[in-house]
Write a structure and sequence with these properties.
The chain is of the alpha/beta class. It has 2 domains: 155 residues, 3-Layer(aba) Sandwich (Rossmann fold), CATH 3.40.50; 207 residues, Dihydrodipicolinate Reductase, domain 2 (2-Layer Sandwich). The chain is 35% helix and 23% strand. The strands form 2 sheets. Strands 14-13-12-11-7-10-9-8-15 form a 9-stranded mixed sheet. The protein is globular, with a radius of gyration of 22 Å. It binds nicotinamide-adenine-dinucleotide. The site of nicotinamide-adenine-dinucleotide has 26 residues, from helix 1. Nicotinamide-adenine-dinucleotide binds next to helix 1.
Length: 392
């Protein structure tokens, strides 16, 4: 553990998100923001001007020359894999943007490289930027589920369609919404946060049947609408509905258990708490029709003082300096990537998929999509707008 008060950090990928992280890092008292790597000279000039950091066009050179404690990776998804692996081989910790990778095989390679690096450097960290895990409502729901307040879980349904995007958004980056540049659409770009929260709260399903529409609302080749049906080993069922083509969108999570249901919608968390176990009533009530008595409670929860992206970076630095637990260990966040891949594969192959996913088979499928792509990306139009509008 370094004996100092600021973790020495660099950023790889100084685009919309990377420059946002740079602003956070420059503010944080436990971060010494020293280096930026990007492929574009203009972006490197910008970073140098704004923060006086050392700049590199090659991440390997940055890893070799700077004595970094950690890097934040904010490149397009495919590059997360080789950059993380190079960092772990150099003994440098990683905070990677979501999704961890475009395919689960890539994600698993990152975790394997982390495990190998950790054998050499026991303090090595691998964290993921799933900033929604800092949000008070998700933390409260997690606490209630873990305490067993709902009892046996019966159903979890997440309708998350407030990821509305225009064609201008998709035309603003050459890699966006293409099989070769991104490996998927809403499942990989907008929804990973929600899929991560879903699997964090209720665990991973064992079977998935899903339907997606490719380029239904936008001139893109990847999915912009998704409906998934999930079956869990414990008998619970789950649903995920997401879209980038709906407005006004919904953000509604229902988790039903034998002791009632939790609903989170429009910033409000409500617990419909039954007075008796519904499963007991089903099995033992002498009545044929029953009004199941329940209380309706508004649940309050504290919001963290430093949440969101900056909170995740502050926590990463704190973990590097003081050995604190990282909020989202990346090997755990990998579930959201597997689920995204499974949902897409199920819809493309029109069949139910069992988990764990055969990663190599999925990668072959993705490669087929890349090889057979006839989609021609319109001219990229760079748009300089407020990135914070993109966050939930
Ligand atoms: N956590 C969040 O809320 C959130 C929000 C938006 C984007 N993201 C994620 O952040 C990542 C980047 O998205 P973005 O919107 O900032 O993209 P972007 O296109 O605006 O920026 C990507 C940057 O990476 C650079 N780059 C590409 N390959 C590189 C390489 N090999 N080495 C160094 N630099 C390289 C590009 O030149 C570009 O400047 C994606 O994985 C995306 O999913 C996360």
């Amino acid at each position: 553990m370094p004996d100092k008060t600021r973790a020495k950090l660099g950023i790889v990928g100084y685009g919309s998100m990377g420059s946002n992280h740079a602003r956070s890092m420059a503010k944080l008292e436990n971060v010494d923001f020293v280096a930026v790597c990007d492929l574009e000279a203009e972006k490197l000039d910008e970073a140098k001007q704004a923060y006086g950091v050392a700049v590199y066009a090659d991440y390997n050179e940055m890893l070799a020359k700077e004595d970094l404690d950690g890097i934040v990776i904010a490149t397009p998804h495919y590059d997360h894999v080789p950059i993380s692996i190079a960092a772990f081989e150099a003994g440098v910790s990683v905070l990677v943007e979501k999704p961890l990778a475009a395919d689960i095989a890539g994600g698993r390679k990152m975790v394997a490289a982390y495990e190998a690096g950790k054998a050499q450097h026991p303090d090595l960290l691998f964290a993921a930027m799933f900033q929604q895990r800092t949000y008070g409502h998700w933390r409260k729901i997690k606490e209630l589920i873990d305490q067993g307040a709902l009892g046996k879980l019966i159903r979890a349904t997440y309708i998350i369609t407030n990821w509305f995007r225009t064609q201008t958004y998709f035309d603003s980056g050459g890699w966006r919404a293409t099989w070769s540049g991104e490996g998927g659409g809403v499942l990989l770009n907008q929804c990973p946060h929600n899929i991560d929260i879903f699997q964090w709260l209720v665990g991973m399903p064992s079977r998935v049947t899903a339907f997606t529409s490719l380029g239904k609302y936008h001139n893109i080749e990847v999915e912009d609408e998704v409906t998934a049906y999930m079956e869990f080993d414990n008998g619970m069922i789950g649903h995920l509905i997401t879209s980038t083509g709906e407005a006004p969108g919904s953000d509604r999570l229902e988790i039903v258990g034998e002791n009632g249901k939790l609903i989170f919608e429009n910033g409000k968390l409500t617990f419909f708490r039954t007075k008796e176990s519904v499963l007991d009533l089903i099995a033992n009530s002498p009545e044929r029709f029953l009004h199941v008595e329940h209380d309706i409670e508004e649940i309050t929860y504290p919001e963290p003082t430093t949440g969101n992206h900056i909170g995740i970076i502050e926590n990463f630095a704190d973990a590097l300096l003081n050995g604190t637990d990282v909020i989202v260990p990346a090997p755990e966040g990998i579930g959201s990537l597997e689920l995204a891949n499974v949902i897409l594969l199920s819809s493309l192959d029109k069949r139910t998929i069992d988990l764990p996913l055969d990663g190599e088979a999925y990668t072959r499928k993705l490669q087929e999509l890349i090889d057979n792509s006839k989609f021609v990306k319109p001219d990229v139009k760079s748009v300089d707008d407020d990135m914070s509008k993109s966050f939930q």
